From TrEMBL:
Belongs to the MIP/aquaporin (TC 1.A.8) family. It is found in: Membrane. One of its GO terms (cellular component) is plasma membrane. NCBIfam families: MIP. The chain crosses the membrane at residues 62-87, 93-117, 138-160, 205-222, 234-255, 282-306. Its main location: membrane. It is a multi-pass membrane protein. InterPro entries: Aquaporin-like, MIP, MIP/Aquaporin, MIP_CS. It comes from Alicyclobacillus hesperidum. This is Glycerol uptake facilitator protein. One of its GO terms (molecular function) is glycerol channel activity. SUPFAM superfamilies: Aquaporin-like.
Length: 329
């Protein structure tokens, strides 16, 4: 029987294969020959989809960033929902930090070999400024990350919407009012009690700087204490947990414009309205601008004040590159 998916799969794969690609006949599981489209410079070295091997290209990286960020935000926002709606952690904030960190770790393992698992516009911009990451890829990475954040927020809402509605009913809260600000924290950040918008901006610069400088140190080939191979995503996850542990309560430690903006857009559509945009005291822009600035400042500190004094590794090329340099090791 002719497989129904062959024709649409052929159309999709044609979008991703090189114009120089060639077709070769290989045996499928049904012992019938099927057409593979492969890059002649690579050969049939990667997994296939229904008998077709997709050529490595930038669209695959964008897709990976979107899926990785969606996975991360599904985990992280769901942790926030458990904490807010069910009081699941009973004041154990470190447990929240660890689970966020594990979400980062698994997202890195999931897509790191494809895109480098930036998952964060602040990281992408820092690598573009200091690490040689191509600027032409930056807009696509950032858009993919924000879309992934939106999808992560949507997945969290799909899981917890009945619980959120029950919580709001019990506490007589309305999403698009001040009383709905508590449940809005499931999706996006805002300053805690006593923290002004200006102070929160400074906090996000410092906290994101701590994250980015740690990632740069871990992924620098000239740092003899970095390049940790397959355990590096775990260390990056612990780094995120550490940052949350020492400063997360200030304004829920966005650290990541996509982590805040994507779910914030979803929450606006889902009824949180003015709590999402413009947010308390017009806060919506702070988790976008401050983390990017923090990443740039941290990159300058690392590259100009620390990196020149590294002992060096002549066997490796110059790199302050993304997580993929270690995930693939």
């Amino acid at each position: 029987m002719r497989e129904w998916y062959r024709l649409p799969l052929r159309v999709v794969c044609r979008l991703f294969v090189s114009r120089r690609s060639i077709g070769v006949q290989l045996a499928a599981r049904s012992d019938r020959p099927v057409r593979w489209f492969i890059d002649p410079d690579v050969g049939p070295t990667r997994p296939s989809i229904g008998g077709y091997m997709v050529r490595e290209n930038v669209w695959g990286e964008y897709l990976a960033e979107m899926i990785g960020t969606a996975f991360l935000l599904m985990v992280g926002d769901s942790v926030a929902a458990m904490a807010i709606v069910y009081n699941a952690f009973s004041g154990d904030y470190w447990g929240i930090c660890i689970l966020w960190g594990l979400g980062v770790t698994m997202a890195c393992y999931l897509v790191g070999a494809i895109s480098g698992a930036h998952l964060n516009p602040a990281v992408t911009v820092a690598f573009a400024v200091y690490g040689g990451f191509p600027w032409r890829k930056v807009p696509g990475f950032i858009v993919s990350q924000v879309i992934g954040g939106f999808l992560g927020g949507a997945l969290t809402y799909a899981l917890f919407s009945p619980a959120i509605n029950a919580y709001n009913a019990t506490h007589h809260a309305v999403r698009n009012a001040a009383s709905g600000l508590t449940t809005s924290g499931i999706f996006f950040t805002h300053p805690n009690v006593g923290i002004t918008t200006g102070h929160a901006f400074m906090d996000e610069v410092i906290l994101t700087g701590a994250l980015v400088i740690g990632i740069l140190a871990l992924s620098d080939a000239y740092n003899s204490n970095g390049q940790l191979g397959k355990i590096q995503p775990l260390i990056v996850g612990l780094l995120v947990a550490m940052v949350g542990g020492f400063g997360g309560e200030l304004e829920a430690w966005a650290l990541n414009p996509a982590r805040d903006l994507g779910p914030r857009i979803f929450a606006w559509f889902a009824g949180w309205g003015q709590n999402a945009f413009p947010g308390p005291n017009g806060y919506w822009w702070v988790p976008i601008v401050a983390p990017i600035l923090g990443g740039i400042v941290a990159g300058a500190i690392y590259n100009f004040l620390l990196r020149p004094f590294m002992p060096g590794n002549p066997k490796r090329a110059k790199v302050a590159g993304p997580v993929q340099t270690t995930v693939q090791a």
